[in-house]
Amino acid sequence: EVKQTVNSKDLERKLIGYFPEWAYNSEAQGYFKVTDLQWDSLTHIQYSFAMVDQATNKIKLGDKHAALEEEFKNYNLSYKGKKVELDPNLPYKGHFNLLQTMKKQYPDVNLLISVGGWAGSRGFYTMLDTDEGINTFADSCVDFIRKYDFDGVDIDFEYPSSTSQSGNPADFDLSEPRRAKLNERYNILMKTLREKIDAASKKDNKDYILSAAVTASPWVLGGVKDNSYAKYLDFLSVMSYDYHGGWNEYVENLAGIYPDPKDRETASQIMPTLCMDWAYRYYRGVLPPEKILMGIPYYTRGWENVQGGQNGLHGSSRTPASGKYNIWGDDLDNDGKLEPAGANPLWHVLNLMEKDKNLKVYWDDVEKVPYVWQNQERVFLSFENERSIDERLNYIKNKNLGGALIWVMNGDYGLNPNYEEGSSDINKGKYTFGDTLTKRLSNGLTNMGACSKTPEDSNNSLEPINVSVDFGGSYDHPNYTYDIKVKNYTGKEIKGGWEISFDLPKSALYKSSWGG
């Protein structure tokens, strides 16, 4: 059995950034390339995304051309003013070649291949059906990181939960018939990956990494009864964003740090759950804090036609923001247009503010995050800035967290060297992608030093007793009624008078206002 341990490497603060494979040929994405990554600030780079091949159960590239074949002939590849060229000695080109070229300058940056994502999790459902499928996938992951010289694998399966219709609606034909078994099979997958990655580490004399990006949604987590997968991870990254968005009418923050009783979506709950603090308390019952990372969004979500609220916050709207307030819209509709979501890189919002003095930043002193409000157009956008980054650093330090995960790196901002005053080109504004927030995070994490080793997780003086506890009865998420059955394997009588208690964070006890 693989046992959870904490070593000195676990105690190092981590700053992990997602690289979006598709950004290099997208105007709205800033034509962002591997050479534009914040290499001198990040400790880990997660390449998004690979997928699970439904035909073979093996890991496969999301865009083979971008990863291995693109020659970037029409691109200016440079880093800090110095020209960067593809390494002709590598048997592949594309982003993977640039990753290895840049890693020669930054050998301490770990490269992980991230598998899944919102649009790339479909293959997980069928792969998990059989042990053979799981073994095939795990073996292929080891082959992949060896072949392309990655340092590990990150699993971003959205979502291994029994909660009905959690995950991408495009996957419901595969996900819904399998819901009851997903949590159990996911645990087997992670155990198998850990064993095979450890075997490869021993053989290659290299410490390969296994991590996972996990949901922060209490609705989704209501269908995850067994978190034993976590003990197989080097670290766990909480996707503590997308708490609110245009999928419903509640105008609230995208990624609040602390709970707010005024959050209209959770106002009827015993405790507000849509915030990082709730997610931390949930996962703290699973892992020591030094293995937990806070997710930070470098993008916005928002609404237009907002009614009520304080400068829009806690207001209501059934109209997600569109047009200039939505250059990173979630999906394309049937006409090939971006569906309204109020999704934008942070730098684009700063450019909008340069042109519109009625678009202003406000501060939520409860959840400790900023938001942007245009009173005439009644537009609300979530936001991140230096002040919220400082609040996140304080939280990481106070909770002894392992660091932070950023989605996504081309959303950070800096001054644009190609600025053209008055230009309507979205990439010619005063701001473009940069390293303002990333550098602030990096400096803050460096200054706070390594994590402390959590005493109670390393020195449990209680003698274990060989019993098992099982739950029966009805299961109707999110309201549970259980029959508890205890099996005694000690060979001795357990006399009456004993009580069973569970080390469960209060934050996990909630009554949902949305009925799911």
From TrEMBL:
Task: Please list the coiled coil stretches.
Answer: none
Domain GH18, which positions?
Answer: 13-444
Its recorded name reads: Glycosyl hydrolase family protein
The keyword Disulfide bond is annotated on this UniProt entry: no
Alphabetically ordered keywords of this record: Carbohydrate metabolism, Chitin degradation, Glycosidase, Hydrolase, Polysaccharide degradation
The family database entries (PANTHER family) matched by this protein are listed as: CHITINASE, CHITINASE A
Family stated for the protein in its record: Belongs to the glycosyl hydrolase 18 family.
Gene3D superfamilies xref list: 3.10.50.10, Glycosidases (3.20.20.80)
Recorded hits in PROSITE patterns, A to Z, give: GH18_1, GH18_2
SMART domains documented for this protein: Glyco_18 (SM00636)
One Pfam family per UniProt: Glyco_hydro_18
GO BP of this protein: carbohydrate metabolic process; chitin catabolic process
